[in-house]
Amino acid sequence: MSKYLYTPKDIVVFFDYSDFRKSDEKMVREDLWENRDIVLDPKYRKDKKKFINEISKYMVILSLKEHKKELE
């Protein structure tokens, strides 16, 4: 049985449902990175900058979708 491995998109969904401050989100990202070989999808394990940028990208996408819903 394999353990579930997280992607940046999963992390953003988690942040969206959580009531975290930015500092809390940063701590979670750092902890995930420190444990990347156990918890992250392999394609995000080599490059921390790519990992963080992917999270940021999905956060922007989610924010834009939420903003669009507000305008409708």
Uncertain ranges: none
Cα shape: elongated
- Percent range for β-strand residues: under 5%
Average pLDDT over all residues? 90
Helices, by number, come to 4
Q: What is the distance, rounded to the nearest whole angstrom, between the alpha carbons of the first and last residues?
A: 44 Å
- Secondary-structure-derived class: mainly alpha
What is the alpha-carbon Rg in Å? 13 Å
Main beta sheet: none
Description:
By secondary structure, this protein is an all-alpha fold. The protein is 71% helix and 0% strand. It has helices spanning 8-17, 22-34, 36-39, 48-71. Helix 1 crosses helix 4 (48-71). The chain is elongated, with a radius of gyration of 13 Å.
Task: Give a concise summary.
The chain is mainly α. It contains four helices and no strands. It starts with 7 loop residues before the first helix and ends with a helix.
